[in-house]
């Protein structure tokens, strides 16, 4: 079944290999490669205005067509995993079978917990989580198969096994980290009757049906954001060296742990809470404007706003806003988030240099989790990480199935650029 896709790639290369996709400018080289197309990523595509499409489907379309656990409920992330892997919308039966398949793979070896326990409980949740992922690597099917010697065309098979095992085991590892740090280490056993996201929420200690719905939505929308974001790109890059999926994903998580990327969800809630602490809950628009300016003048960014590609409100923000309007319209932190949506964009526009003054996914997620009792902001990036394994894992399988090569772009020195520009000007 892989042959037609492999043939399509071969045809693209042989017939159109020399077609130009744009010009590389000095600005791009110095500016973090913004706008430079440089990677094949099959699972999703980001439009600057409209936002993400997973295999061609927007978030509202996914909410409509992907199977849910309850009537008119949020999509089950297993359905999105199926969509990313196959390009096809699954039936409820297929999603249920995938839930069971993931459950059957979810046992975590004891040494993984021991590796986490070797860290001080004060270590950042992302450090503890990534340590767990590194310990899971001991079981890598890809590494074993590669060491035995296997043809390149078959690399995708142990990659598939590793990615499914990784995705299925992460909720266990992540909930262990949460309960270790914030709940005196009292673990909660999995409930094998539940779907992936609900079981994760249960193991964290949250069983409110609305929280289960939130977790399904949360895990679905954070999965994938095309290939150029720091975590996805890192996973893809490291995987291109034929490092196994555990090594690749642990590297990706280390990128996600940066404040300009996934850690922004932690930063947003801490920032919002600091606004509340300083000004009280009846904050006026003028006080809020003043607080935003104070943040900017102290040299910090406004977390949750701006984006490397998006030039509009992130649809992942919008669907979380819809969720809040439905389930928690009176929540004071949600009302503050809504006020920020009015106050921040004009200020960032006034600043003059910000290319996208609109909110991204991280501007909203924290207040939803906080509402249902998951108040520990330092943990939020771990949730993002669990979800992102679904996107990065799906693409890693396709990377190996399509035989994509080692990623190795060219770099140049400042002197090289200066000399080149002189030659061009002459
Ligand atoms: N607050 C203050 N300044 C900002 C912001 C912001 N929210 N967004 C961009 N800028 C600044 C940016 O720091 C840069 O300043 P300078 O030239 O002095 O270095 C200038 O505006 C131009 O940056 P852009 O080209 O608009 O943005 P860029 O593509 O470089 O960066 C982000 C994108 C997302 C890193 C940036 O918007 C940011 O720092 N946002 C806040 C952090 C955040 O929310 N990150 C989460 C992104 C989503 N995710 O989950 O990963
Ligand atoms: C993501 O989900 O990875 C972020 O929005 C960052 C990005 O796309 O650059």
From TrEMBL:
One of its GO terms (biological process) is carbohydrate metabolic process. It holds the Pfam family Citrate_synt. GO terms for cellular component: mitochondrial matrix. InterPro entries: Citrate_synth-like_lrg_a-sub (IPR016142), Citrate_synth-like_sm_a-sub (IPR016143), Citrate_synthase (IPR002020), Citrate_synthase_AS (IPR019810), Citrate_synthase_euk (IPR010109), Citrate_synthase_sf (IPR036969). Keywords: Transferase. GO terms for molecular function: acyltransferase activity, acyl groups converted into alkyl on transfer. This is Citrate synthase.
